[in-house]
Amino acid sequence: MARQYPEAFIKVALGSTENIVFETIENPEINLPERRLDFVYGLSDEEKEYILHLDFQLRHEASLPERMHIYNALLTASNNKPVISKIIYLERREYRNLPQEYVVSYQGKRENVFTYQAIMLWDYTEKIASGELGELAPLLILLTKEKSEEVLVKSKELIFKSQDQRWQADALSLAATIAGRYFPKEFLFKFFKEEMKMLREASIVQDWINEGMEKGQIKTLQEGIPDVPAECFGLIKKGIGKKIMAIDDPLVLKSLPKKSVKVASLEEFAGLLEELEK
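Given the sequence above, the corresponding structure tokens read:
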């Protein structure tokens, strides 16, 4: 999203894109040592060129202030341009006070201070819902206190306000991916049922389909295995059945029927299962 819709994120970071020319800097990294960064933009106004570094976080980590200081310094050195650093927190949490500076103190005195802005994206929920920052509609479920179906409905409405069908598919795929953090897949399949044709080629949906097929195959194999030892030795003990259901490797499950016909007793079959557990 940051690559495809830079203007929305730059508005969040700077408040406006008026009189600013911006470009995406691909594959941003800092050497000595190498550091992978979340996202970097090149900016220029009527007077000067800048680097805008955005660091995306789901939650705060204690090491962030120091990392932001290091990123800023190394970006400045490698690009020879002033760097504006911002953290954008994505998932709504009830923070009392987020740090916005890295401080080096000596004997109680603040010797060096690096400051940056911490942006809580949920402060922009109304602007997203109004359509002003409509490109961020797929993130709406991250930003609300209540993770409800109503929020997903609103996200979908905002997405379909666009006339760009390709963006609609991408945005719906992202909305479904994020919603997977809070809702069961069965609900999401039902919720996005009408859009499934549009989403069919999206990687997240394809993963779900493949996962469902694999689970179905595993269950069929698990259910069929007890038939062989039951035919040879009679009633299968409940404990053996549980051990079979705990095996989720399709290759192992496929090999079990052949192995089970070679054992001489139910106890030997149980020993075979124990060996597979090791």
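The radius of gyration is 27 Å. Try to locate this feature in the token string yourself.
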